[in-house]
Design goal:
CATH class of one domain: Alpha Beta
Radius of gyration: 23 Å
Strand content: 15-25%
CATH topology of one domain: Rossmann fold
Structural class: alpha/beta
Number of strands: 25
């Protein structure tokens, strides 16, 4: 099923024309009966319209502070926004629409509207700065944007360098232009008759070079993700209330906090700030039963559990970084709940190795999710026996499809998706995480490319050279550590550390800043001048 199943509905074929060549795609497998998708498929119609048609229109779909939308109300809001996109902004199938906002019911409605209109949703992290937004807009040739008015400043700064992005509409305070226009539209919309393998999402991730990669996902990818891990491992039901911290711009959040609950007729809570203390309070307030967050958040919340009524909570999911055994134990001691751990990737959309509560084991990630196959390969692509560390390789109904990126050849080899993780299989068949196989730093659930932080530091006039690596940290998994060589005349003191940290925070997303900076007279390099990061990591 590597070939396109049906005629594309896309009028703007930019993204479709930049899919990897068929021979560069991974092998897709559709072994489960529920993965036999029709040739025509619109995932927004499956997630919302089908639910309303089945009689669930009055069930609660989306909750937020001061918001309680039923499925019928969510459908109406998404339909009105879709009309604004098509009738007012001229969106045609295949256009790329940037979405900028913190998690909220309105952002969810915008995502559904974009997909209903046959366009491609390009989510962005709320913390991204103008220079990062410019890169994304340029790479995806974004044509339209829906932006929370409170986050408009950085997008406004980016616009002069974004010639393709000609139409921006803001929602929420202080302008709420989108809401005003949507309110004047009828609550009906005829969904674009998209092909199952039309692209509906471009999710961006940073590679080890710091240059973001656009991962493209079909309508069928979204529904395939909903058909694999959720029913076979999570096993939530339609009376559950989902909540969590990952942004909808992350596929971890898009799946866990929107796609998966809607796919079963459950409710999702979307809150803008989900820090450990506010997340616990929201679980109690909304009587949430399924929580998605990173290991660092579970660890931080443990000390505050006794202060909140968490009787409604019954399932907790961890992903985004390796789950330390100590964190699993702390959370279970505090709540009685065994965390469901899992590994997924932006390239494959969501979790593909996991264990349910009954099979969870400290230190192990779990087993291949039904619908997926996994193997541990050596550098030549040969499968390794249990106990030997190698490269994690995955096949399933989803797979890597980079947007016009030569790094496709690194991620997909011999039909396998190579995730960049080093794993082994233990005697019980469980997959056990060892480390990252590249220079990506995973800190507090965020993927941070060391070279990108280096690039930000090098913009400061005091910095001559720098190298950035991940350093092990009990609370965050890893932290960003920078080794810096200063130019003559600058003092290597605590004041300079703070100056450089603040500079990085103002240049790229603040979570990427180096929490530790060590000054050195020189950095280790090869004879050809290449930075030897492995020597910094050893240090």
């Amino acid at each position: 099923m590597n070939s396109r199943a049906a005629a594309s509905a896309h009028v703007d074929t930019f993204a479709r024309d930049r899919l990897p060549a068929p021979e560069a795609l991974p092998e897709f497998i559709f072994e489960l009966p529920e993965l036999q998708f029709p040739a025509r498929l619109n995932c927004a119609a499956e997630l919302v319209d089908r639910r309303v048609a089945a009689g669930d229109g009055e069930r609660v779909a989306i909750l937020g502070h001061g918001v309680r939308w039923t499925y019928a109300e969510l459908q109406a809001q998404a339909n009105r926004i879709a009309r604004v996109l098509v009738e007012d902004l001229g969106v045609v199938p295949g256009h790329r629409v940037l979405l900028r906002g913190a998690n909220s019911p309105m952002l969810a409605a915008c995502w559904l509207a974009v997909v209903k209109a046959g366009a491609i949703a390009v989510g962005t992290m709320p913390l991204l700065r103008a220079r990062e937004l410019v890169t994304i807009v340029d790479k995806a040739q974004v044509t339209h944007a829906l932006c929370d008015g409170r986050l408009a400043e950085e997008l406004d700064l980016a616009l002069p360098q974004c010639p393709t992005l000609t139409k921006v509409l803001k929602f929420c305070a202080p302008s709420a232009e989108l809401e005003a226009r949507a309110a004047a539209k009828p609550p009906t919309f005829t969904n674009v008759d998209t092909a199952a393998d039309d692209i509906c999402v471009i999710a961006f991730t940073s590679g080890t070079t710091g240059v973001p990669k656009g991962t493209m996902h079909y309508h069928r990818d979204v529904m395939a993700a909903a058909a694999c891990w959720p029913p076979h491992v999570l096993r939530a039901d339609r009376d559950d209330v989902f909540i969590g911290s990952p942004p909808l711009a992350f596929t971890f959040g898009l799946g866990g906090l929107l796609v998966f609950p809607l796919a079963i007729g459950a409710a999702a809570v979307l809150i803008e700030k989900a820090t450990p203390d506010t997340l616990l309070a929201a679980i109690a307030q909304f009587r949430a039963s399924v929580c998605f967050t990173a290991p660092t958040s579970y660890r931080a919340m443990t000390a505050q559990v006794a202060q909140h009524d968490l009787k409604s909570l019954r399932k907790c999911v961890s992903a985004g970084e390796a789950l330390p055994a100590a964190t699993r134990l702390l959370w279970k001691d505090a709540t009685g709940i065994e965390i469901i751990d899992g590994i997924g990737s932006t390239e494959l959309f969501h979790i593909f190795i996991s264990a349910d509560e009954a099979h969870a084991r400290p230190g192990a990630t779990g087993l291949p999710v039904p619908g997926y196959r996994a193997a541990i390969l050596d550098d030549e692509g040969r499968e390794l026996p249990p106990g030997q560390v190698g490269r994690l390789a995955i096949k399933g109904p989803t797979g890597c499809k980079y947007l016009a990126d030569e790094r496709q050849a690194n991620y997909v080899q011999r039909g396998w998706n190579l995730t960049g993780d080093a794993y082994l299989v233990d005697a019980d068949g469980q997959f056990v995480y060892q480390a990252r196989t590249d220079d990506m730093i995973i800190s507090g659930g965020y993927n941070i490319a060391g070279p990108e932080v280096e690039g930000a530091l090098l913009l400061h006039p005091a910095v001559a050279e720098c190298g950035v690596v991940g350093q092990a940290d009990e609370a965050r998994g890893q932290i960003v550590k920078a080794y810096v060589v200063l130019k003559p005349g600058h003092a290597a003191d605590a004041a300079m550390v703070k100056t450089l940290q603040d500079f990085v925070k103002a240049t790229v997303a603040p979570y990427k800043y180096p929490r530790e900076i060590e000054f050195r007279p020189a950095l280790p390099r090869t004879e050809t001048g290449k930075l030897q990061r492995f020597k910094l990591r050893e240090a």
